[in-house]
Amino acid sequence: DAGVIQSPRHEVTEMGQEVTLRCKPISGHDYLFWYRQTMMRGLELLIYFNNNVPIDDSGMPEDRFSAKMPNASFSTLKIQPSEPRDSAVYFCASSSGQNNQPQHFGDGTRLSIL
Amino acid sequence: KQEVTQIPAALSVPEGENLVLNCSFTDSAIYNLQWFRQDPGKGLTSLLLIQSSQREQTSGRLNASLDKSSGRSTLYIAASQPGDSATYLCAVKSHGQNFVFGPGTRLSVLP
In the predicted model, what is the mean pLDDT of residues B51-57? Predict the structure, then answer.
């Protein structure tokens, strides 16, 4: 299996621009998670989906952040407008079932907002 | 709200040494606990998943234990190798919450 695939690997853009991060989960996994990792706050869960439906978005920091999962093989995390404090590594993870299966992570998108 | 801590924050050991990494959590009502390793510039790789009903899990040179009553888990690495150098994170899945991650322990194994 190819694992969780994220794109782009790196993104550098100016503040105010729209940023779209993409994720392809492992085929057959019914849970998808978006995380953000920073030196100051560590790894934080932003939102997760079950069977393409958003279940908990309480970790999304502001209305500037939105996530969609139009089908079982694709999800996006969008930031509009972006701000320098959004700079972080964003990870996508997927799992089969929530409570008793491990999460599998992608390699992340390193986002820098200038 | 679940809080997860890890001690030490960083550890440097010579190759061949056995070592223990610690993870503590505040709410003992958990579903499971997962240990990950993270290499620089990479995502997290799952090492071991311990269900709340289990006391330990083993994979090769790795052994993870879980003591829910004391809110603790340890990751034991036997005969450490330079390739074990990475950051190790534990994550706890609690009732009504998703995975909460610890800050990690940065391990350096010196040849």
Answer: 93
